[in-house]
């Protein structure tokens, strides 16, 4: 195998990771009002970088690679942006920027006042999550990815307990313990892999790993650890209180992006690092867990009385769909199939939709002073834009056209027919109906008449409503992509395939 | 010469080990904090002291011997201070276990 | 059996012990201790792999050693954060356990 | 079986027994004490595995700082950690089976391929001369995989932010509530006056020698942190408020310089985190020196905990 070299413009990958890191360091040093300003400068800059990477990968149909320090793997560390990482990076950047704009209303630092805890911490954590996610999608070294996962965890946990209520502290602690369990299992798998194959570089591993006991055990341990972090059923217990307890912008980032980070690594592991390992049985197991998540999450979402918890349970269900990629692509060329494109589209559209929903929920809670669904009557006349945003995002969760969620679920359904695995189709249809149930439960109340005159806690700014709407529109616009396997999402794949079939 | 030194080492280290054993038994069996501290400091002091002393002839050069002595001095220092602190706490709490 | 194998079994046993404690102990402090036992077990296994990879005049492969050093620091950070969360929870509620089926947050949250 | 090997078996049994004790001890205090002993024994195990750098780190962090942190926690929990609900027998059995299976699998797999022990040691040694460092572990940490090391510094800082974030709103920017383990008596003050000069020297020596021999920024930084904590506990120096500009600057100076050197690599050495050949050694020493300082301050503040009051007492 020829060692890969840094490609032209590869430096963008380093910048994508380092920019938020520099932001963290500067924010910590400067403090006070500078923290928000630093974030406001860096967010657009990061968006530009992500867009540039996306554009380059799309134009050249070729991965970007950067060899850090000029030391080639296995000794050194490489960064790589293939099709899925580029798309994931851009999604991340858009959601983070929107969250930043949205959060200004909540975590802005007023002029002249002493620095406050929540605002200092929030902006630094937001940057931390961003650098963690960028490293997760770009990293090509299993241990580097471990550090990235920890970066993500250490930024995500304090976000959960930011409000400081006792139940959020408890939720954060439980999240922390699950996350630690997850990372230590991941590390254990990494150790086994190094011991067996002498490298941690994913591209090199893809050519070296054979289906044998050590690879199987390593892969199962790592997958189990990552499932705990992704909150896939039945390891989901920590998610609802954690995502519901965080402040709205925090919930948006956690639900839309952070859980996807560990999912991304599961996909990296099975499709890139150990492509020879995926077989029918492992695919069916992961798919079954996903199906359990879809049904269980949706049913529990229907039974919630509070909006944020409902949305959190819906996250559990929507994550479940992602795992249908594994059984449906268990063929030879997973990335050429409709399921591959469908699965990733589900991830991106859910990211936009869920971020928008949590923002809408935050705005509703601010307006009313509570988020009890039963008392939402008449809210559509007070904050119509927010309610529309929630509805549009809901379309995508249900899988109704026109929306990204529709295209994603349609492609997945198509794949079940093509692969002859009809049972997933049943789960998806039931899940769609249940999603319709809980979305309309909320909308029905919101459009219904108020039983008592609405008591408004405080007005919310139009700008923040528009941010939520924009994200919902992003989820809808994803529905315009053609109904076929996307070429972009296959960038970087065939090379890997070439290595195994050789 | 080597033989004498080796015998010296064996004797001193054995004696040190004996104090270790005695001190450990004391730590487990003595009735209250103060007497237990007494047992413990004997281990630090005499037990480790004898072992270090016995190992000195086996040390690699002057630097090795100095390192061994440093080990003993640091353990002495920390042992003395920690037992002072424990004793103070014990007296303050009037603990009589 | 040689001493490398012995430490391999030791590491494997520590991983099992730590996992068991982390899963079954109800008190958070014990879970944190178990996590640390588990972590050192994983590191020790890595050390065994490093020792087996002794080559080129080194007694132990330096790459795993460096990774373990990084890992120890990360594990320490994790321990501090978990401990501080635990202490805050205890200060607020007087509890130092997290039983799994209390109803997720009620009431106060949501509004401000 | 040779006598040293029998001793080694006894040693491993002791480690495992203490690990079990840590998990089953009735009182939390006992569990933590056992854990501290466990940390020191593990450090010895690392020496047996010929990994002196790791042994130093484990002794300093695993045996020292972690123990200090946990002791502080136990003191605050006042032994009342509660019993909680032990899981039922089926859960215990299931968990037990799972853990035994994992252990068994690991025990057999780690040694499953004795004929090929993959190793990067030759690759490290081939490039050691180019890295300008003599200690192969340091070369991996600061040259070949410097990116990991850099990100891990960020992890440390985020952990500190996370710890601070748990302070009540009104004391943000205030003084960490470092738990005092003993009344600052004359003997403690004596120790805090006697030890730091030696300790600081050892800390600096560890970082300095780390370029060529076992040691390095982490180990040195940890020793510095321990000395600083000792001085604060003896109340010879006040615990600083976290809003102090100098504290913030000390926290970030190491990582900032590391990042700056990394970025300069783009211009002068052709890649991020590459060092220009003629200046590699001085650059790494500058980065390590400032990192040692930053790590020391970060670790010290991590142990000191979240702020809990605005003013000095």
Describe what you observe in this structure.
The complex is a heterotetramer of chains A (502), B (97), C (112) and D (313). Chain A has 20 helices and 2 strands. The model of chain A is unreliable at 495-502 (pLDDT under 50). Chain A has a domain at 279-502. In chain A, helix 2 (34-60) runs antiparallel to helix 3 and helix 17 runs antiparallel to helix 18 (422-447). The radius of gyration of chain A is 22 Å and the shape is globular. Chain A has 502 residues and is an all-alpha fold. The model of chain C is unreliable at 101-112 (pLDDT under 50). The radius of gyration of chain C is 19 Å and the shape is elongated. Chain C has one domain (3-93): Orthogonal Bundle (Helix Hairpins). Chain C is 71% helix and 0% strand. The termini of chain C are far apart. With 313 residues, chain D is mostly helical. Chain D is built from 11 helices and 2 strands. Chain D has a two-stranded antiparallel ribbon. The longest helix of chain D is centred in the first third of the chain and has 26 residues, at 52-77. Chains in contact: A-C, A-D, B-D, C-D. Chain A binds chain C through residues 75, 143, 146-147, 150, 153-154, 157-158, 161, 163, 165-174, 176-177, 180-181, 183-184, 187-188, 191-192, 194-195, 198, 237, 240-241, 244-245, 306-309, 365-366, 368-372, 457, and chain C through 15, 22, 28, 31, 35, 38-39, 42, 45-46, 49, 52-53, 63-64, 67, 70-71, 74, 77-78, 81-82, 85-86, 88-89, 92-93, 98, 100, 104-106, 108-112.
- Radius of gyration of chain A equals 22 Å
Content-based structural category of chain C? mainly alpha
> Using DSSP, what is the number of strands of chain C?
0
Q: Which percent band covers the strand fraction of chain A?
A: under 5%
User: What percent of the residues of chain C sit in helical stretches (DSSP H or I)?
Assistant: over 70%
Instruction: Give the low-pLDDT segments of chain C.
Output: 101-112
The overall average pLDDT of chain A, rounded, is 88
Question: How would you spell out the order of helices and strands of chain C?
Answer: HHH
Biggest interchain interface, per-side counts? C-D, 82 and 91 residues
Level-2 CATH architecture of chain C: Orthogonal Bundle
N-end to C-end Cα span of chain A:
11 Å
Query: What global shape of chain C is seen?
Result: elongated
Rg of Cα set of chain C: 19 Å
Give the CATH topology of chain C. Answer: Helix Hairpins
Low-confidence stretches of chain A: 495-502
Q: Major sheet of chain A: size, sense and barrel closure?
A: 2 strands, antiparallel
CATH class of chain C: Mainly Alpha
The total of helices of chain C stands at 3
- The residue fraction in helices of chain A comes out at over 70%
Strands of chain A, count: 2
Oligomer: heterotetramer
């Amino acid at each position: 195998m020829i060692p890969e070299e840094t490609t032209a413009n590869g430096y963008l990958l380093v910048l994508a990771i380092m920019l938020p890191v520099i932001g963290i360091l500067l924010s910590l040093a400067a403090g006070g009002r500078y923290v928000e300003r630093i974030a406001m400068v860096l967010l657009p800059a990061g968006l530009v970088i992500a867009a540039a990477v996306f554009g380059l990968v799309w134009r050249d149909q070729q991965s970007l690679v950067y060899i850090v320090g000029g030391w080639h793997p296995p000794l050194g560390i490489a960064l790589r942006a293939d099709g899925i990482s580029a798309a994931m990076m851009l999604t991340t950047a858009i959601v983070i920027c929107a969250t930043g704009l949205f959060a200004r209303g909540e975590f802005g630092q007023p002029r002249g006042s002493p620095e406050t805890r929540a605002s200092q911490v929030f902006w630094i954590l937001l940057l931390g999550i961003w650098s963690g996610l960028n490293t997760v999608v770009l990293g090509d070294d299993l241990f580097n990815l471990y550090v990235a996962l920890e970066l993500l965890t250490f930024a995500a946990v304090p976000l959960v307990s930011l409000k400081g209520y006792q139940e959020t502290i408890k939720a954060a602690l439980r999240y922390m313990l699950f996350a630690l369990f997850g990372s230590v299992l991941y590390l254990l798998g990494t150790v086994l892999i190094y011991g067996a194959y002498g490298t941690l570089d994913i591209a090199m591993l893809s050519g070296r790993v054979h289906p044998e006991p050590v690879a199987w055990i390593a892969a199962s341990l790592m997958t189990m650890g990552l499932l705990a972090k992704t909150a896939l059923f039945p390891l989901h217990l920590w998610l609802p209180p954690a995502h519901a307890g965080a402040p709205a912008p925090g919930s948006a980032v956690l639900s839309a992006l952070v859980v996807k980070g560990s999912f991304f690594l599961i996909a990296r592991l099975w499709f890139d690092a150990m492509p020879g390992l995926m077989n029918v049985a492992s695919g069916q197991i992961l798919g079954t867990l996903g199906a359990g998540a879809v049904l269980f999450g949706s049913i529990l979402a229907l039974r919630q009385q509070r909006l944020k918890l409902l949305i959190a349970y819906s996250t559990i269900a929507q994550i479940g769909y992602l795992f249908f990629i594994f059984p449906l692509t268990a063929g030879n060329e997973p990335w050429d199939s409709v399921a591959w494109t469908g699965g990733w589209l589900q991830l991106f559209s859910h990211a936009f939709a869920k971020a928008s929903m949590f923002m809408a929920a935050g705005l509703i809670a601010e307006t009313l002073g509570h988020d009890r669904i039963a008392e939402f009557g008449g809210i559509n006349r007070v904050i119509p834009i927010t309610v529309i945003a929630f509805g549009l995002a809901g379309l995508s969760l249900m899988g109704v056209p026109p929306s990204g969620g529709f295209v994603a679920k349609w492609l997945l359904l198509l794949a079940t027919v093509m692969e002859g695995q009809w049972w997933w189709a049943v789960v998806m249809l039931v899940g769609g109906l249940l999603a319709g149930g809980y979305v309309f439960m909320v909308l029905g109340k919101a459009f219904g008449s108020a039983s008592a005159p609405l008591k408004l806690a405080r007005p919310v700014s139009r700008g923040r409503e528009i941010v939520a709407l924009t994200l919902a529109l992003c989820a809808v616009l994803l529905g315009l992509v053609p109904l076929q396997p996307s070429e972009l999402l296959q960038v970087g794949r065939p090379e890997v395939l070439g290595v195994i079939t050789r | 010469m080597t033989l004498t030194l080796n015998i010296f080492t064996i004797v001193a280290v054995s004696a040190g080990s004996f104090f270790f054993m005695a001190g450990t038994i004391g730590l487990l069996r003595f009735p209250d904090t103060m007497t237990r501290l007494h047992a413990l400091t004997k281990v630090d002091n005499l037990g480790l002291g004898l072992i270090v002393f016995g190992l000195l002839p086996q040390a690699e050069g002057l630097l090795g011997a100095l390192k061994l002595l440093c080990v003993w001095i640091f353990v002495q220092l920390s042992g003395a201070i920690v037992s002072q602190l424990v004793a103070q706490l014990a007296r303050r709490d009037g603990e009589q276990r | 059996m040689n001493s490398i194998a012995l430490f391999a079994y030791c590491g494997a046993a520590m991983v099992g012990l730590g996992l068991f404690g982390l899963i079954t102990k109800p008190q958070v402090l014990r879970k944190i201790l178990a996590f640390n036992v588990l972590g050192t077990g994983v590191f020790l296994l890595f050390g065994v792999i490093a020792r087996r990879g002794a080559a080129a005049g080194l007694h132990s492969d330096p790459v795993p050693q460096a990774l373990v050093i990084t890992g120890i620091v990360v594990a320490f950070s994790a321990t501090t954060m978990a401990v501080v969360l635990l202490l805050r929870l205890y200060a607020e509620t007087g509890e130092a356990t997290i039983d799994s089926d209390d109803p997720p947050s009620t009431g106060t949250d949501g509004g401000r | 079986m040779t006598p040293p090997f029998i001793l080694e078996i006894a040693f491993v049994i002791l480690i495992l027994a203490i690990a079990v004790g840590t998990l089953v001890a009735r009182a939390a205090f006992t569990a933590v004490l056992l854990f501290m002993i466990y940390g020191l024994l593990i450090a010895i195990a690392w020496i047996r595995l010929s990994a002196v750098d790791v042994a130093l780190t484990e002794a300093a962090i695993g045996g020292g700082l972690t123990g200090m942190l946990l002791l502080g926690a136990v003191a605050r929990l006042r032994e009342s950690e509660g019993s909680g609900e032990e899981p039922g027998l089926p859960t215990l059995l299931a968990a037990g089976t799972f853990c035994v299976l994992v252990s068994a699998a690991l025990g057999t797999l780690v040694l499953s391929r004795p004929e090929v022990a993959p190793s990067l040691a030759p690759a490290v040694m081939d490039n050691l001369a180019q890295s300008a460092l003599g200690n192969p572990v340091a070369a991996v940490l600061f040259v070949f995989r410097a990116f990991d090391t850099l990100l891990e510094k960020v992890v440390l800082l985020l952990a500190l932010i996370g710890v601070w974030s748990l302070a009540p709103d009104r004391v943000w920017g205030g003084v960490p509530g470092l738990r005092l383990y003993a009344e600052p008596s004359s003997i403690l003050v004596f120790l805090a006056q006697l030890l730091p000069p030696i300790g600081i020297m050892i800390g600096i020596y560890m970082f300095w020698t780390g370029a060529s021999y076992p040691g390095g920024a982490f180990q040195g930084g940890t020793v510095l942190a321990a000395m600083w904590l000792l001085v604060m506990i003896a109340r010879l120096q006040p615990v600083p408020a976290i809003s102090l500009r100098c504290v913030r600057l000390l926290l970030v100076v190491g990582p900032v310089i590391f990042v700056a050197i990394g970025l300069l690599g783009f211009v002068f050495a052709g890649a991020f985190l590459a060092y220009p050949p003629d200046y590699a050694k001085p650059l790494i020493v500058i980065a390590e020196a400032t990192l040692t300082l930053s790590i020391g301050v970060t670790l010290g503040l991590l142990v000191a905990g979240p702020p809990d009051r605005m003013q000095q007492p």
